[in-house]
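Invent a record, attention on tokens:
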Amino acid sequence: MSVRTFLLPDLGEGLTEAELVTWLVAVGDEILVDQPVAEVETAKSLVEVPSPYAGTVAVLHGEAGQTLDVGRPLISVAPAGGSGFGQAPDAAPDAVVDTSAAADTGAAPLGQSDPAGEAYRQEEKAGSGNVLIGYGTPGGLAVARRTRRSRNVAASPAGPVAMPAPAAAPAPLPVPAAPPAEAPRCISPLVRKLARDGGVRLGDLSGSGANGLILRSDVEAALATAMPAESGTSPSIITKTDTAVDPRTGLAIASQTPVKGLRKTVAANLAASRSNIPEATVWVDVDATALLELRSNLKRRDPGSTPGLLAFLARFVVAGLAKFPELNARFDPDAGAGASGSVTSGAQITAYDGVNLGFAAQTDRGLVVPSVRRADTMSARQLDVEIRRLTASARNGKATPAELTSGTFTLNNYGVFGVDGSAAIINYPESAILGVGRIIDKPWVVDGALAVRKMTELTLVFDHRICDGGTAGGFLRYVADAIENPGSVLADL
């Protein structure tokens, strides 16, 4: 019986390790091609890893909570019932095959291809194999690693029979249907799953990777064109059962928490922001009474589709960035090769044609910043729908790396935590973040008289290298005026 070992791929995101969150199968389970076998947490998201083989689970290489390096064994699969040739090719010459079991289980007999397994392998053969560890063909070799060679098997009621077969000429075997001349060049199983879930045919795509390789971004672009988890788990804590003492404080160490996964990425991102960005902060008190009254009136008329306050704020922010596009940019200290391929030298400011609006979302896994792509093309209602979708996806640990890393400006509603203001850290490599505090009753002067109003505080933290205080102040004042008098920005919306 030939056992195939599947190596942990780099998931198409250039990562070097992943934490094994939970196994979705157990030793002895029968699995199919592309069936999810494990949930792993990368530095960017929680993802399911599908198996490229069908058969019986033989070995699980790791335990929940363990960090596995890319390229290390993840799972070993044996052919189901001694068959499974359609899913686990390259049986060794001395392999033992039970053909009677194949007949009993309905598995594809020798010489016949399982359609799902054959299609899977044809996709694996496309591309260089240097892109995703554990998949594809070795670069430069003429023969694919997983190409199946025909074997002669003599069936026997006594059970397994060792190969090779007797010298007698065997009966002609059925010839499998010829595969397409060239399968879609897509190596990553996660990219294939993303395409399948979204109804995208890989054969219709032109890959932007090397030699036409189809990348995650290609599938996401197709999905965007077609359509204009570890939710309760905290980082593992190692509790000290001995009397270890911290040498600096002299206090006993209660516990130590490894910094890994999402927390490791967040820590690195925050440190990079503080180290590289000379930020400045401006803030202003805002009377939000008119906006709350507007939303209350809309809710009375149409309670089912009234946008939330965050959606209104997001729409005002997008309008403000249209007026002050300097804040929707990135500072590149050493540009190198430009986006168009031109060679540049020294620092430059990269401006974007469009807004991917990120918003901070607190989850059980930590703080993440999913982004609404092309928020500048959406109404407040559309923004509300997308914000709710991304929030649910992030809290379930299902947000994609692209959704968590593609923002150009961040909106942070820390008022939900009952605080008024914060000197927020810019979401590197973005250049600005706008924070919104809680809305509470405060005394405020209106038309020369003291009144109780619904007040909040807006705080803008920005990279002083991309603009001066006049631009930052102008943007902040624009958003504040939109909140205080929503009708004043109708022309810009």
Q: What stands out?
A: The two ends are 66 Å apart (CA to CA). The chain is about 25% helix and 20% strand.
